[in-house]
Amino acid sequence: MKNVICLVLLLLPLITSPAAYSQQDTELNQSPALRTETERAKARLMEAIKQRDEAKKPKKTSRKISEIMSEQPCACVFNNTNMWNPEKILWKDQYFVCGHYLEDGRCEYVKPMQAATTENN
Fold it and tell me: Which residue ranges make up each domain of the chain?
């Protein structure tokens, strides 16, 4: 144990000496190819950080009117097997109903609800 401590104490000044760092710096300065590769790696890192930050930003949801909101609601809203199955859905100021229920209760497609007409005699 004492031998290990003595060895560490002897090697520590050699590892942390400024001469070792200055030698590495001169080697980096002498190699322009290595310097350009380092700059490219830094640029790739910055681009990856930028993409990560953009991915973390909150996205617009269908709760608010935006460009992402589709013209029709998803057919997954209608399902006969669920306890709560709506007859109609209000979506962008228009009512929609399920066009056809499959055997397992899921909705195959959604269609706009026909407007109710009244006849005056």
Answer: 17-56, 59-114
